[in-house]
Amino acid sequence: MYTGTAQFDLLLPGDSRSLKAKRSYVRPIVAALRRFEVSAAEVGALDLHGRAEIGVAVVAAEAAHVREVLDSCERLVAARPETELLSVRRRLYGADDD
Description:
Low-confidence stretches: none
Number of helices: 2
Shape: elongated
Strand order of the largest sheet: 2-3-1-4
Structural class: alpha+beta
Order of helices and strands: EHEEHE
Number of strands: 4
Largest sheet: 4 strands, antiparallel
Strand content: 35-45%
Radius of gyration: 14 Å
Helix content: 25-40%
């Protein structure tokens, strides 16, 4: 069994000056990520209006499949024209990891 996580740091447009406006950008991204059958949520920068951190987790029988799914998630987030992907932190855990 392998698990993988990715954390996406996003810069939101200048008009996201309220938490309501921020949610209008974050919610569609999280919903789109969930179509890849992953767990996805806003996990950081919760009180910052112009930034968002979205976390993704996936479990699979093979490490290659975990990498494929995380690659797809990263492409989806990077392709969003309304946000800028600042950084991605990824981790892969296997049965031998403690």
